[in-house]
Design goal:
- Helix 4 packs across helix 13, helix 7 packs antiparallel against helix 8 and helix 18 packs antiparallel against helix 20.
- A hairpin with a 2-residue loop joins strand 1 and strand 2.
- A two-stranded antiparallel ribbon has the order 1-2.
- The two termini are 40 Å apart.
- Helices cover 72% and strands 2% of the residues.
- The chain has one domain.
Amino acid sequence: MVGVIVIAAISIVGLIASILFLPSVQIGKLHVSTYWMMPLLGGIVLLASGLLSFDVFVGALFANNAVNPLQILAIFFSMVFMSIVLDEVGFFRFLASVAAKRAKQSQTLLFILLCIFVSVLTIFTSNDIIVITFTPFIIFFSRHAKISPLPYLIGEFVAANTWSALLVVGNPTNIYLAGSFGIDFLAYVERMFIPTLFAGFVAMAIIFLLFHKKLKDPIEVEPSDEKIIDKPIFIVSAVLLSSCIVLIAISTWISLPMWIAALGSAVILFVFVFVYGLINKKEFFVTTDSLKRLPYDLAPLLLGMFAIVLALEESGITEVLFSALGNDQPILVYGLASFLGANLVNNIPMSVLFTEILKSGSVVNYQAVYACILSSNVAAFFTPVGALAGVMWMGLLKQNHLRFTFLRFVGYGALISIPTVLAGLGGLYLSFLIFA
């Protein structure tokens, strides 16, 4: 048990240290993220030392159940690929320019429209993709219009990591936790609708109060005219993404695993875009650029943490943590514990760990499960450690020469995330009262 704890602790400390001090290294012309390295190394050490049985790990890796990390990765990468294709043809930039035009000279209206667009898109795509695509546009437009980008950057980031809780496909943590406990698409929406509304509106209200003075200044420059680059690819990708979400929603009724629905849709889109690119050579960049932008780092991180958590479970540590958290007030206790846990180890490792903690009970406590799901989303804007979206967001600001320190992130994060998570957990209480 001691050996497993030591390796797990070193892996987690290494994960946090890499995010804070060395988020990436340059190998030639290639920038490689580092946050996945220590968890992966920790998993390898556990297997090599015999502290985790290789047979146990392989059995769990290929088990035909919802906890299978390979199936979770298939769902996530498939959804992200379809979202990236939409971005490559200019869909997200087009929506952002529409918002800027509609707002005319009003920053307040622009802020509201941008938050609405981001909130709706992150529900159906992925919070990570929204952060990656909208952040550079906001910085560029703000500099061009000579306005402060801060309200829009924080509004975009918070909206993307709050409304992502509404659907199971909005965040890989949603997929992992919901899949681990057999929660289907519609049951998930039923429970998470009210808490997401509570959290979303509270978060936006706080941000508006923080920046309402900055938003009073008029916009002096006309926004650029963005257009969708290729309409056939846009139409096919939009139809396939929409169809995929519908199939996932009814997957339990038609006995279709979610990962097959997602992967099948992504493969069809890939084949179409690839063939279309061969026919129209100038459009082939959509295929290559979409594949390059996939967040491959998630795979070694998830597999490494999966091995660490399996070892913790095999040694009985998850049962100790389950006893320590107890059964009283599961929404508040697990909601706050997972919120803090995500900001110590990142929300994906936290979700893997808390899944095994919750499985230590004789029956599934669904109040605790949904509390962890909510916190895995909202925790992203307490510290940059809370989610991969925070790491990417800070990296994008740095690339665009916009100074935003760790302490400044935490300052805004504490003001926004703590009331938001409490409002969301309050909404979860209400949801369980209504849908008892």
